[in-house]
Amino acid sequence: MLNLDFSFLTTEVLSGYVVKGFFFSLELTLIAMLGGIVLGTLLALMRLSARPWLVMPAAAYVNTMRSIPLVMVILWFFLLIPLVTGRPLGAEMSAIITFTLFEAAYYSEIMRAGIQSIPRGQVAAGYAIGMTYGQTMRIVVLPQAFRNMLPVLLTQTIILFQDTSLVYAIGAYDMLKGFEIVGKNFNRPVETYLVAAVLYFIISFSLSTLVKQLQSRIAIVR
Amino acid sequence: MIEINNISKWYGQFQVLTDCSTMINKGEVVVVCGPSGSGKSTLIKCVNGLEPFQQGDVTVNGISVGAAKTNLPKLRSHVGMVFQHFELFPHMTITDNLVIGQTKVLGRSRDEAMERGLKLLDRVGLKSQAAKFPGQLSGGQQQRVAIARALAMDPICMLFDEPTSALDPEMINEVLDVMVELATEGMTMMVVTHEMGFARKVAHRVIFMDQGRIVEDATKDDFFGTPRSERAQLFLSKILSH
Hints:
Chain A is mainly α.
């Protein structure tokens, strides 16, 4: 039978090892979310444009990113950058850039669906009062698309938060890494990984509950 | 004011407009009617360049809509347009709907734009709705706001693309009343509609379209008195007989 003992997981131990990692996981999630949504929106606009020279690179980028496992992108980016630039980027910085670039592909598909969900007449109405393409997108289409897609964007962010644990591959210090160190130091890997799993569950589950509540509140009345 | 010269338009192989020409003078109200699919909505959207066309040209106030060097956004900012489905911006209040074009396109200050917008809202009888969102208004009310939004840009002419055909019958008149008032004030108007009562009351000319062609372009009296084409006679007898 399992002989579990959690007594070593004191507040001091947690704040000493795990909190630092938690904040990096949080930082990584937030930056990759914001950067990914901005970049993803640009990619979506490129894919929806009528110009093949904009559509093709954006489509190629999105399809490539979505067809490669994240952990490989993390590894390759971490290994390739020093080869190209001549100096290492550091695991944390490398992770932030990789996640932003990777998530952009997923956010772009969400934003593309969001933009397509806005009736064409809205675009015509923006143009008809003299707005440029940029103004019509910024003022009329994207705010509505973003609002329609907010629950899906946040759900993707919850997945992103869970995926941040993959930075173990390049040794960045995230929440899971914090637990891993504790587990090694106290020779209690089973207990620490259990607690880590419970913590990921609590955070992700409460966030998705929040998203569900948000969903009913923000719908635009047409 | 608006000159349409021999325009033709194709969707792929399908020709939607064939050699359409007409002219709308300053202060003139022209009603465009015809069976559905006759190309009347497409024609009116060519006037402000919302629909591209492959042949011919449209000029508004002397400026060519089809020319590559034309600043279309600028041209459109002087040409008001009202849509079948209102197309108010649902994520903005009524006030913001009236203000946004004035501030972002014309560069007016928010205060100036608010004053102009609320004055027009009052004119269409909806001053009390300023803080609401479009979804909280009835169709007729939304269409009146849409007219006010177009007027807020101080347009030199107004285009109406079936402004009452998405409305419940009891709301049609409140919208037509606003349009009649505009017409009697001398606004240049091109109106795609089946409301023949409106045409009789304020139109100077009536254009009848069928299968992408302008079949009849006549003064109101001629059109309702003795339409020349058989197709127009048939159309009129169908929509006026009950």
